[in-house]
Amino acid sequence: MVIPDFESKYITKAFQIFDRDYREKEQWAKFTNNRNNKYAITHKNKLYLVKEIIRITAQEAELNLPHFNGGKEANSFIRKRGFEIIDLKVKRSNLDLVSGLNRVLDEYYQARMNDQFAQHELGDLLRHDLPEIVANKLQSYSLDNDYEIKGSIGQANWARSRG
Questions:
Q1: Does the residue 154 lie in any domain?
Q2: In the chain, which ranges are E strands?
Q3: Taking the model in full, what pTM does it have?
Q4: Average pLDDT score over residue span 110-126
Q5: Rounded distance, CA 152 to CA 150, Å?
Q6: Is residue 153, in this structure, part of any structural domain at all?
């Protein structure tokens, strides 16, 4: 589907609405860590989820927004209006092994005690980011690619260790 045309001023207004009404909500507070979110708009040193900004913008412009795809369609739409899009995977990949492991050590206990298991950002770190960092490090040392590297936070629940 084609995104209806609207002026850049509505996008700028959508940034303000997002900051005021959405940014602090749990669903949006850490959207950059969610692997389902691949791209973000960068504006005044803040990041905004592309599809959500388009949705808010259409609402502000009082336009009917049909279902539309993210990715190329949405990113192209935003770029054509003068805004910059960044790849969140690249942003997440700037994490190094030491800081990733330190984050696990700092946050695991609290997450296990208080947070939902499914789709937790610390789970993404352990299941995806850290294994990818280790695999890349092994490749950089020209070691065999015979290793299968997996990360896990437990099976259907946070893992518990006996201390």
A1: no
A2: 39-43, 46-49, 84-87
A3: 0.57
A4: 70
A5: 7
A6: no
